[in-house]
């Protein structure tokens, strides 16, 4: 197969893949969300797609079309849903989207469905949809399995120290910060304008949420920390760490055979 992307395959090639042992599809999920003045709205979807493709090549999986809309951006992790450029779906919609799409892949014969999350707020709604779909499929076929993972959880401590030499403040405030900007500088440098980065201290956030949101409590840049220290070289370190760790977790979790790896 010349491409790991399902949307590039014809139906016969797709069907042949489905007949394989340990057939696995990775569904990348993102959002349409502002990422400050220096990056485009599609960052989360672009990053999860690129990482999914690299992992798919390692483990012999296919990559489904990305989920381009995500659950509501929240002030404490994405700057807030009020910001122009952010277009979201409700939790109920997200659950049903995941449940329907995962259910359809399992019905077509995939053994394993992996959802690779690229938008912080999506996680629990994907969890619900994936759990429901797998439970339903296993009523008639006990081999169906699912895995849910957010790519940033696979950055190891050594990489973290190298990328954040002044200390790491947490993934929630990395929205539009060094992690995403470095990965974009590596994967889509033409889509990043470092001259437009707003260099501000990390957002000081409450440890609770209020309704309605108060737009004055998050930086007007739309980012929760500064991307000024982002580089393509850091992006390369992050990408390599995440690709390797995700692939080895999936190989051991799904008992993928060596023969199915690199089989494209
Ligand atoms: Zn993002």
Looking at the overall shape, the CATH architecture is 3-Layer(aba) Sandwich
Strand order in space, largest sheet:
2-1-5-6
Mass-distribution shape? globular
> In the CATH hierarchy, what is the class?
Alpha Beta
Strand composition percent: 5-15%
Rg over CA atoms, rounded to whole Å, is 19 Å
**Total domain units:** 1
Structure ligands: zinc ion
Structural class of the helix and strand makeup?
A: alpha/beta
How far is the first residue's CA from the last residue's CA?
5 Å
Number of strands: 6
Q: Which stretches are low in confidence, meaning pLDDT under 50 for 5 or more residues running?
A: none
What's the helix-strand series?
Answer: HEHEEHEHEHEHHH
| Helical residues, percent | 25-40%
**Residue-averaged pLDDT:** 94
Reported for the largest beta sheet, the result is: 4 strands, parallel
Q: How many distinct helices?
A: 8
CATH topology grouping: Rossmann fold
CATH superfamily: Creatininase
Cofactor: Zn(2+)
Family: Belongs to the creatininase superfamily.
GO biological process, one term: creatine biosynthetic process
Keywords: Hydrolase, Metal-binding, Zinc
């Amino acid at each position: 197969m010349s491409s790991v992307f399902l949307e590039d395959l014809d139906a016969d090639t797709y069907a042949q893949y489905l007949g394989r042992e340990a057939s696995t599809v990775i569904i990348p999920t993102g959002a349409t969300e502002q990422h400050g003045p220096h990056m485009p709205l599609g960052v989360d979807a672009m990053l999860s797609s690129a990482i999914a493709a690299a992992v798919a090549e390692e483990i012999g999986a296919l990559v489904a079309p990305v989920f381009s809309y995500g659950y509501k951006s929240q002030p404490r992790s994405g700057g807030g849903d009020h910001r122009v450029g952010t277009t979201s779906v409700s939790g109920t919609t997200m659950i049903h989207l995941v449940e329907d799409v995962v259910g359809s892949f399992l019905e077509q014969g995939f053994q394993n469905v992996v959802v690779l999350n690229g938008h912080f707020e999506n996680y629990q709604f994907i969890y619900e949809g994936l759990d429901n779909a797998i439970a339903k499929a296993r009523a008639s076929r006990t081999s169906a399995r699912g895995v849910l993972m957010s790519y940033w959880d696979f950055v190891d401590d050594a990489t973290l120290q190298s990328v954040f030499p002044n200390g790491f403040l947490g993934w929630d405030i990395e929205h539009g910060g060094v992690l995403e900007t470095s990965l974009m500088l590596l994967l889509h440098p033409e889509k990043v304008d470092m001259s437009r980065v707003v260099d501000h201290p990390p957002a000081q956030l409450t440890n609770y949420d209020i309704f309605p949101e108060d737009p004055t409590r998050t930086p007007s840049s739309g980012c929760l920390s500064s991307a000024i220290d982002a580089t393509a070289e850091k992006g390369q370190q992050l990408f390599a760490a995440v690709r390797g760790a995700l692939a080895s977790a999936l190989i051991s979790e799904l008992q993928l055979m060596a023969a199915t790896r690199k089989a494209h």
